[in-house]
Amino acid sequence: MQTVLKPVTEIKRRATEVLAELRESHVPAAITEHGEVGGYLVDPETFEAMARRLEVLEGIALGERDVIESRTLSHSEAKKRMKQWFA
Q: Considering the domain 1-42, what is its CATH architecture?
């Protein structure tokens, strides 16, 4: 993912303009302090998309853990349980 470096002093001086650039470009800005990245700014759409992707990935990871720990059901057992839930 492309990122733009923005010194913290620039964020302080031009906060409104920087936010407008983020909303328009959808390119995250790495906020630097003394030459090192101290944080990131992203527009709301990008943040929400990243949060949704993270939720999906966490669900996949939980499912993989269940498989590794043998917490799975056969197809027929799953069908039986689903039938009970929806009865």
A: 3-Layer(aba) Sandwich (3.40)
